[in-house]
Amino acid sequence: MESTPVDWNPISLSDDVRSHITFNADGLVPAIAQEVETGEVLMMAWMNAESLDRTLAEGRMVYWSRSRSELWRKGDTSGDHQSVREAYYDCDGDTLLFKVVQHGGGACHTGERTCFFRSLGEVE
To answer: Where are the beta strands (DSSP E) in 7-124?
Structure first.
């Protein structure tokens, strides 16, 4: 269940960097998963401190499910998991970006490759 991916790059989170991450009032921070090779944005989900620590320790994306109020290891049910390659935080420290290798059919719970498959409209 918690095997370390072979295409994972170990990432250690220093206390200094950790102090720059701003969790919201619910103890959560948005985390964006982006395909490392193509730059395709796959999904956005939430992380708490524990899911962030587990993600970095396991090399697999672990999120916080707001609807179930529990940790959610991406791919445990679907098999479509994400191996961490790189990790960043934005200038305000309130959003995380993970460059990942997407394994399996898709990142979206609908089965789509990406959660961003719907357009708001056509470019005029």
So the answer is: 29-35, 41-47, 62-65, 70-73, 82-89, 96-102
Range 15-102 has CATH code 3.10.20.810: yes
Pairing relationship of beta strands 96-102 and 29-35 according to DSSP bridges = parallel
The DSSP bridge pattern shows strands 62-65 and 70-73 to be antiparallel
The tens digit of pLDDT for each residue in 41-63 reads 999 999 999 999 999 999 999 99
**Which residue ranges make up each domain of the chain?**
15-102
CB-based contact 16:81 (threshold 8 Å) = no
Q: How far apart are the C-alpha atoms of 82 and 71, rounded to whole Å?
A: 15
Closest CA to 92 of 29, 15, 27: 29
Q: Can you tell me the distance from the alpha carbon of 72 to that of 70, in angstroms, rounded to the nearest whole number?
A: 6
- CA distance linking residue 12 with residue 97, whole number of Å: 15
